[in-house]
Structure formats: C-alpha cells, structure tokens
Write a structure and sequence with these properties.
The two termini are about 25 Å apart. The protein is elongated, with a radius of gyration of 17 Å. It has a two-stranded antiparallel ribbon. Helices cover about 40% and strands about 25% of the residues. It has helices at about 5, 10-20, 55-70; strands spanning about 25-35, 35-45. The protein is an alpha+beta fold. About 0% of the residues are buried.
Length: about 70
C-alpha cells in the first residue's frame, strides 16, 4: 500500500492497518552449511501492510507527536 492510499483511509481502516504493524511473517528455510542442515527464518518485509517501510518506527513517531500535542 502506498503513502497516498494510506492517507485516503477512513479512521476505522487506518486503525485496522495500525493493528497489523509488528506482525511481519517469517518463512523457515533449510540450508546445508558444513554438511549440517540448519533451519533459518526469513523475515518477509514485503508482506507488511506498507511494504518495507518501517511501520513501527513511523507509528511510534506519530504517537509521540500526538502526545506532545504539536
């Protein structure tokens, strides 16, 4: 979802989007390293509601701004 689309969301929709932050899906992958199979997890940033934009950081900045009542 791009920034323009986010700006056009109704408050209820924006709240739903905010609730999705911090739940980046992880995908397990197995690699053989030194003859030993090892399981690693890939963080799928592109599955975030805003793509790879750092949504938790943005949300925190907005909340701080609202607390300061600027």
């Amino acid at each position: 979802m791009d920034v323009t689309a986010i700006a056009d969301l109704a408050p209820v929709e924006l709240n739903k989007l905010a609730q999705q932050r911090g739940n980046t899906p992880m995908e397990p992958v197995y690699l053989v390293i030194g003859g030993i199979a090892r399981k690693i997890h890939l963080k799928l940033e592109s599955e975030n509601p805003t793509g790879s934009v750092k949504d938790r950081t943005g949300y925190g900045l907005i909340q701080d701004w609202k607390r300061k009542d600027v």
